[in-house]
Amino acid sequence: MSFVLGITGGIATGKSTVVDLFKKYNFPVIDADIVAREVVEPNTPGLKKIVSTFGEDILHTDGSLNRQKLGQIIFADPKKRQTLNQLLAPFLQESIINQINEARRHSSLVIADIPLLFEAGYEKSVDQIAVVYIPENLQVSRLMKRENLTEKEARQKVASQLSIEKKKSQADVIFDNQQDRSFICQQVTSWLKAKQFL
């Protein structure tokens, strides 16, 4: 039976760096962000659901989703963000779980890259949860640098997610990303060796 490692973190904690390391070893990665784009492509049930709730204004003239417009609506209003997440959750879950099951048939280890793993209740769909961790203050400063934000804007974005400390407390595995890339590489390699995937 193959093993599914769910990987999550917070904004700017370096989750993509860790996921890329697993990709280097050719383990299949189910990327929730890609799935989230797939379930709202033109003419999908997911997009129709969003339009029926948020109106035609959130579409480009070609019928595709105007992410920027939708983003402005949901970032300004936590209730609307919650509504959107609830609308898309069943489509996302079905697609992610199907992709995990498919990948399990071909690989001893499957990586499920799910930013909202805890928030969306994917704990039961994975065998272990790894959290890519940095303390919140470092998260804020990295985000300010990466996206050219003020401290207030960065803190707002960080606060819109479940706190990184809370995620850390629920993790089976912690990849600490406070140092350089070689430090995180080492942790991933050690975990793979300990689990006998390398």
Describe this structure in words.
A 5-stranded parallel β-sheet has the order 2-3-1-4-5, with helices on both faces. The protein has helices at residues 15-24, 32-38, 45-54, 67-76, 78-104, 136-147, 151-159, 164-169, 181-194; strands at residues 3-9, 29-31, 109-113, 128-133, 173-176. The radius of gyration is 18 Å and the shape is globular. The model has no long low-confidence stretch (mean pLDDT 95). It has 198 residues and is α/β, with parallel strands linked by helices. The protein has 2 domains: 1-28 and 125-193, 3-Layer(aba) Sandwich (Rossmann fold), CATH 3.40.50; 31-106, Rossmann fold (3-Layer(aba) Sandwich), CATH 3.40.50.300. Helix 6 (136-147) packs across helix 7. The protein has 9 helices and 5 strands. Its main location: cytoplasm. It catalyses: 3'-dephospho-CoA + ATP = ADP + CoA + H(+). One of its GO terms (molecular function) is kinase activity.
